[in-house]
User: Fold this.
Amino acid sequence: MTANSTALLTLARRRFSLSARTPREIMVPLLTPILFALVIAPALATTMARTGNSYLTFVAIGTVGLLVPLNCMFAGLGVIVDREGGAQRELLAAPVPRQLIVLGNMLVALGISALQVGALLIAARLRGADFVFGAEGVAWFVGAATLFAIGMYGLAEIFANRMKSQEEYVGALPAIAIVPWFFAGSIFPISALPAGLAAFAKILPLTHVLAVLRYGLIDRSGSGLRDIWGMSDPRHMAMLSMGVIVVFAAVVTTVAIRVFQRSAVR
Assistant:
């Protein structure tokens, strides 16, 4: 193992120890996805026009688009705490590349997001959701969810390092983590939106993420992808949407590292 790999794992362990010091801090984040899967999604399935397990499954996947941004954005609060009263100065003085500090924090956010998504899928399946766990579909799901979490944590780092206080950060969090969820096909297809809003939805990374997630686990015909691209080949459309997600994750992570490095020398 290289020195940088050892440093990255050490930084990730440090962040995890701060984020999950007690069993309660591990279990509480899992309550939200379980609540969505067991209570909210079935309630929506009962009240919406598209009732039954098909809609429960649809909404369960859509919930991923809310849980991951919320978890990653709340993880950004730890960056502010570290800067204001934590060990950020000591970490910056340590003989490790500064980007590893960002990547170490990101690993923990990814791990907690994975726990939440796993809890959501298990609870939804127990409640009656109909997922298809084929090898290729799972690969599409895991790839899209992981890249999306990377991009969202990158946004958290950017805003945490640009904003002066926790209050300012928390005030901006709903616009970043919650508002896009209502437009991205989370609880209804984007084809149900007015033309202008549907066009806006197509440029949101989350819209592409949810379309790929559903393509992976519930909709091999790619109806959600077709709403975006209007093509006939589901795999080709999935590759196009995955490309959008890759660009989103890569660009945001690059910017996040640069913003952190600049803020560190102020």
In short: The chain has a mean pLDDT of 82.
